[in-house]
Write a structure and sequence with these properties.
single chain; 269 residues; mainly beta; Immunoglobulin-like; Glucose Permease (Domain IIA); 2 domains; 10-stranded antiparallel β-sheet; 1 helix; 5% helix; disordered N terminus
Length: 269
């Protein structure tokens, strides 16, 4: 597998006379996250869909696991000047694992919990629609916990011949009770101690639709509406929910687009 999770490309657009400015920095790959800046008051679209631009011109973009190889980005300044860019999105290879002979209870959840799962999924879906104006993400990210990387973005299991949902997080394996901190500033939008799949779960809103989810936590020590700074304590690693051992599953979304948290941080020490 090509190692590009930490790929960081800097694109500083040459600014033609009279054109609106456009700067971008990030991983131009499937699962990638791009942070950028344009002129205050500019409008931005990605593949024809509007993207929030902060009062200071800051914006963020995300590309999913199966993103197309090209994306069309357009920006128009308040004075009518414009730029258009075709973004090249690199394809990734993912780790696919086949496991046969599992008891069916490990492949599908029991029928009696399906209503609970649907209710919890709807709760999470609503949280991920939030579009907060403040760009907490612009100050950068750190690892939310320290430990061995035991799972990566995009990997997938085929259980008894049935492809399961891909893994969209990065897993940090460490003992129960290992501290979990905010990787960047934000507002707590969800804090639950016992979701069916993910157990102790926190979702932290970093602004502009970018949010982190922290799954399988033992202790959840934050409350909905609480504002956190980078490095603030949120709780501890656990093995709650459908976990096979103690670890933190850290995931990032850009609205409903599932992106790779690992592109935002340096290699684990």
């Amino acid at each position: 597998m090509i190692r590009f999770l930490l790929l960081a490309l800097l694109v500083l657009a040459a600014r033609p006379a009279g054109a609106v400015s456009l700067e971008m920095n990030g991983a131009f790959t499937q699962g990638g996250i791009i942070m950028g800046r344009t002129d205050p008051g500019a409008t931005l679209t990605l593949d024809g869909k509007p993207v929030r631009v902060g009062a200071d011109g800051v914006f963020v973009l995300g590309f999913g696991r199966e993103a197309e190889p090209k994306a069309e980005l357009s920006v128009r300044g308040a004075d009518g000047s414009a730029q258009h860019r075709t973004l090249e999105i690199a394809k990734r290879d993912y780790n696919i694992q086949r496991i046969d002979g599992l008891p069916q209870k490990y492949v599908e959840p029991p029928a009696e919990v399906l209503a609970r799962i649907k209710r919890e999924n709807e709760q999470i879906k609503e949280v991920r629609k939030i579009d907060t104006e403040r760009a907490y993400f612009a100050d950068g990210f750190i690892w939310p916990a320290k430990g061995r990387i035991s799972g990566v973005y995009g990997s997938q299991r085929i259980l008894n011949g049935e492809p399961k949902w891909p893994h969209f997080g990065v897993d940090v394996a460490a003992p129960v009770g290992t501290p979990v901190v905010a990787p960047a500033g934000g507002i707590v939008r969800l804090a639950e101690k016992d979701l069916y799949y993910t157990g102790g779960t926190v979702i932290l809103d970093h602004g502009h639709g970018l949010s982190s989810a922290f799954l399988h936590m033992q202790d959840v020590n934050v409350k909905v509406g609480q504002e956190l700074k980078r490095g603030d304590s949120m709780g501890t690693i656990g093995a709650t929910g459908r976990a096979t051992g103690p670890h933190l599953d850290w995931r990032i979304n850009w609205f409903d687009v599932r992106v790779d948290a690992a592109v935002l941080v340096p290699p684990m020490e």
